[in-house]
TrEMBL record:
Domain Class II aldolase/adducin N-terminal intervals: 15-210
Enzyme Commission code(s) on record: 4.2.1.109
Keyword Lyase: yes
Protein's UniProt keywords contain Metal-binding: yes
Role, per record: Catalyzes the dehydration of methylthioribulose-1-phosphate (MTRu-1-P) into 2,3-diketo-5-methylthiopentyl-1-phosphate (DK-MTP-1-P).
One Pfam family from the record: Aldolase_II
InterPro entries, alphabetized: Aldolase_class_II_sugar_metab (IPR050197), Aldolase_II/adducin_N (IPR001303), Aldolase_II/adducin_N_sf (IPR036409), MethylthioRu-1-P_deHdtase_MtnB (IPR017714)
GO molecular function: aldehyde-lyase activity; methylthioribulose 1-phosphate dehydratase activity; zinc ion binding
UniProtKB keywords: Amino-acid biosynthesis, Lyase, Metal-binding, Methionine biosynthesis, Zinc
Protein name: Methylthioribulose-1-phosphate dehydratase
GO CC annotations, alphabetized: cytosol
GO biological process, any: pentose catabolic process
Gene: mtnB
Organism: Streptomyces niveus (Streptomyces spheroides)
């Protein structure tokens, strides 16, 4: 791959991240600079990821608001004025443990309600999902039921990432999503479109749960 090819790859990936971010912001899923997105890109032997910069208004990102990091460690590859997302280490933990090529983290309302209701401050818990037809949108071997983990919202993000790493390493068939207590949801897929699609399924299922679809 030539330097020009690499630059084109990075620019295209950055533009795509910005476009998906603006869309998710417009849905109200990334309020107040929350949320972050990344893609794993085929430069640097497939170990490079491009991730949104920290603290930006996610509704007005452009391809210039991205930071190149090592996909599996989160280390910044080209130091510059932009700071990589504060939650880069969680993206890196997903890339290290799965085949994912895109990761999306948002503070969408219904998933966040379920993260508040099911999370605890002293242990990882889980949210059981079953019966919903929308489970078929998650790419599971058995779409009749699954459990998604709810991690503690450690102030040190690396501690969340360590728990994600440990969980995904011991659950190779894990669903492509996780909750962080009192915080939000992270999903992943083979590309941004699939990660967003799965996010839509999770958010819709959480909405149904909040509305009491399975009560009584
Ligand atoms: C105001 S949101 C607090 C940080 C957060 O949870 C988030 O998703 C955004 O962090 P980033 O560093 O990626 O902007
Ligand atoms: Zn967040």
């Amino acid at each position: 791959m030539t330097i020009l090819d690499k630059r084109t790859e990075l620019t295209t990936a950055g533009a795509s991240l910005a476009s998906f971010s603006r869309d998710l912001y417009a849905r109200g899923w990334m309020p107040g600079t929350s949320g972050n997105l990344s893609v794993r890109i085929p430069v640097g032997h497939g170990e490079t990821a491009l991730i949104t910069a920290s603290g930006r208004d996610k509704g007005s990102l452009t391809e210039d608001d991205m930071v190149a990091v090592h996909a599996q460690t989160g280390d910044v590859l080209v130091p510059g004025s932009l700071k990589a997302s504060a939650e880069t280490s969680i993206h890196a933990a997903v890339y290290a443990a799965t085949e994912a090529r895109a990761v999306i983290h948002v503070h969408s309302p219904y998933a966040t309600v379920m993260a508040c209701r099911t999370g605890e401050s002293d242990r990882t818990t889980s949210l059981r999902l079953e019966r919903f037809e929308l489970l078929k949108g998650l790419g599971l071997d058995d779409p009749s039921r699954t459990e998604i983990p709810v991690f503690r919202n450690w102030p040190q993000v690396q501690m969340i990432a360590d728990e994600v790493d440990e969980h995904l390493g011991t659950h190779p068939d894990a669903a492509p999503g996780l909750l962080i207590a009192d915080h939000g949801i992270t999903t992943w897929g083979k590309d941004l479109a699939q990660a967003r699609n799965r996010l839509e399924c999770f958010e819709a299922i959480c909405q149904l749960l909040v509305l009491g679809a399975m009560d009584s």
